[in-house]
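We both want to read discrete structure tokens more fluently, so let's practise on a single case. Would you write everything just below, so we can both look at the same thing?
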Amino acid sequence: MPRIPELSTEQMDPIQKGIYDDIMAGPRSSLRGPFHAWLHSPGLADPAQKLGAFCRFSSSLPKRLSELAIIVVARFWCAQFEWYAHAPMAMEAGISPDTVEAIRIKQKPALSLEDEILIYDFVTELLEQRTVSQATYDRAQVMLGDRGVVDLVGIVGYYCLVSVTLNVFDMPLPDGEQNPLSP
């Protein structure tokens, strides 16, 4: 049971309803995850959902790499819903099940592709150190370019916001689903 009530469309004011309609008309077509909480603050909900749509659907990073970054963030924050939603997407995008499982159980995955190694190292270092070393930054800049590095940082930041929202408001998994992550 979430800590914050889910607003029905009848309870939404016109601004909230407009944001709801925008979300439902877009590629998501669902308010699962952080959106119910965010709708309580329309000034946050609108730019957050637009940023999320960019990070998920329009980033310069290939989906495989963005999904890898997302599950590293989800695991760092132990964000159950985020992991539940994005681990399957990561595998569908080409991340190996062994890599997903290693991240799930807090082990360093045995990666062989240079771009996946870079994403894992960059995101892990950023989350643990609150920045990245010059060497890591240089690797990212060479492999991803300036736009790719900016998009990667944006993905990490956005999914940190998603993860803390999910955790603070105790947003539930669908009925019958078990938490996939141990604390």
Remarks:
- Residues 7 and 36 are 7 Å apart (CA to CA).
- The chain has eight helices and no strands.
